[in-house]
Every structure is written in structure tokens, then in C-alpha cells.
Amino acid sequence: MASSPLKVSVVSADQEVWSGEAEMLVARTVDGEIGILSGHEPVLAILATGEVRVTLPGGEKITAEAEDGFLSVENNVITVVARNAHLV
């Protein structure tokens, strides 16, 4: 059975940095790195400064640098909100 893709949105204080479908997201939190796949339990985590790595359905990877913010996961929807974020 195929799993549903994740719907990811990475936002900084003044703009949406990236949004789209993904297979996986890895981000650095104050408690260490967290990896999110389809079907992940709901979670709210505080971001640490570092990379947010998104793997797209075709295997391509997108990386954003984020600092100060949070990560929310619920029903395969991931929202990354950072004070400052940009694609690298």
C-alpha cells in the first residue's frame, strides 16, 4: 500500500521559503535531529539553528537553513516556521 506524500511548508518571518510534497523531512531540534515520514504521530518541536532537509518524491533533495522557530506535524502536514530561513 502506497503511503500519502507529506505536505511541507517552510516559512520565515517575512515569506514562504518553500512548499510542496515530500517523502521525508529531517530537521534539527533542540533535542536533536528528527526525521519525519508519512504517517508520523503529531508532534510540535522547537527548532535549533541548522538545516531542514526535504526529500522530494523523485529523490531530489532541497535544503533550507533555519534558525529560531518550531516544527509542527499533523496528518502528514509539516509546517516549519522560523524567524529566519532561506534555501541553500
What does this 3D model show about the protein?
By secondary structure, this protein is mostly beta strands. The chain is built from no helices and seven strands. It has one domain: ATP Synthase, domain 1 (Sandwich). The protein has a seven-stranded mixed beta sheet, with no helix packed on it. β6 and β7 form a beta hairpin. The radius of gyration is 12 Å and the shape is globular. The mean pLDDT is 95. F-type ATPases have 2 components, CF(1) - the catalytic core - and CF(0) - the membrane proton channel. CF(1) has five subunits: alpha(3), beta(3), gamma(1), delta(1), epsilon(1). CF(0) has three main subunits: a, b and c. It is found in: Cell membrane.
Major beta sheet, strand line-up: 2-1-7-6-5-3-4
pLDDT average, as an integer?
95
Distance between the termini: 34 Å
- Profile the largest sheet: 7 strands, mixed
Question: Can you count the helices?
Answer: 0
The CATH superfamily name is F0F1 ATP synthase delta/epsilon subunit, N-terminal
CATH secondary-structure class: Mainly Beta
Helix content: under 10%
Give me the count of strands.
7
Strand content: over 45%
Choose one word for the global shape: globular
CATH architectural category? Sandwich
> Structural class of the secondary structure composition?
mainly beta
Unreliable stretches (pLDDT < 50, length at least 5) are: none
Quote the CATH topology. ATP Synthase, domain 1
Q: Structurally, how many domains make up the residues?
A: 1
Instruction: Report the C-alpha radius of gyration, rounded.
Output: 12 Å
What is the N-to-C order of secondary-structure elements (H for helix, E for strand)?
EEEEEEE
